[in-house]
Design goal:
heterodimer; A: mainly beta; six-stranded mixed β-sheet; four-stranded antiparallel β-sheet; 12 strands; 51% strand; B: mainly beta; 11 strands
């Protein structure tokens, strides 16, 4: 089947620290991979995506590389800010109309 | 450009009542979906649609109905509300592999 597993949270970091949120997936084919971010009281927003193996998605200083050999799509940022505090969701999709989401990882950045 | 609009934002229902959650998008997206978000479970797909007149079940469809008479609208109906349907509901729309645009959510409590 298809599923996404994210690292357990919550994650608390100091401002300017390096961030990694692990995401691994199980897939029956070759999906596209996504990271979404949810700020308090809001819906999810697309952060970045990668459509094939070895692609790197990037946005707002966040990066993730589609690793087929390790079935992973880890999210990284070199220097987090307080404004990055949110819940981050990893997801996969084949068709664009059905997504499989991880359970989310809560990030809190303290000044 | 409003994106995806959900109404209402908050709702309290009594067990057994019915109601419709509204969702409208103005981006001419062919795909629309409904998810529920519960603590520790991520987002789970309820129903989805690949175009006007076409709907299908997701992972957790029981107790919910949908219809898609126009490209823009995708209402979700709760037939007889139960406490297990207490959740935050998100509507989303997308194009093929474009990633979802989410609404801001409806927080539903069933007492």
């Amino acid at each position: 089947g298809n599923s996404v597993t994210q690292m357990e949270g919550p994650v608390t970091l100091s401002e300017e620290a390096f961030l990694t949120i692990n995401c691994t997936y199980t897939a029956t084919g070759y999906p596209s991979l996504f990271w979404y971010v949810q700020y308090p009281g809001e819906g999810l927003q697309l952060l970045l995506k990668a459509t094939k193996a070895d692609d790197k998605g990037s946005n707002k200083g966040f990066e993730a590389t589609y690793r087929k050999e390790t079935t992973s799509f880890h999210l990284e940022k070199g220097s987090v800010q307080v404004s990055d505090s949110a819940v981050y969701f990893c997801a996969l999709s084949y068709t664009g109309n059905q997504f499989y989401f991880g359970t989310g990882t809560s990030l809190t950045v303290i000044p | 450009n409003a994106g995806v609009t959900q109404t209402p934002k908050f709702q309290v229902l009594k067990t057994g009542q019915s109601m419709t959650l509204q969702c409208a998008q103005d981006m001419n997206h062919e795909y629309m979906s409904w998810y529920r978000q519960d603590p520790g479970m991520g987002l789970r797909l309820i129903h989805y649609s690949v175009g006007a007149g076409i709907t299908d079940q997701g992972e957790v469809p029981n107790g919910y109905n949908v219809s898609r008479s126009t490209t823009e609208d995708f209402p979700l109906r709760l037939l007889s509300a139960a406490p297990s349907q207490t959740s935050v509901y998100f509507c989303a729309s997308s194009t093929t592999m474009g990633g979802y645009t989410f609404g801001s959510g409806t927080r539903l409590t069933v007492v």
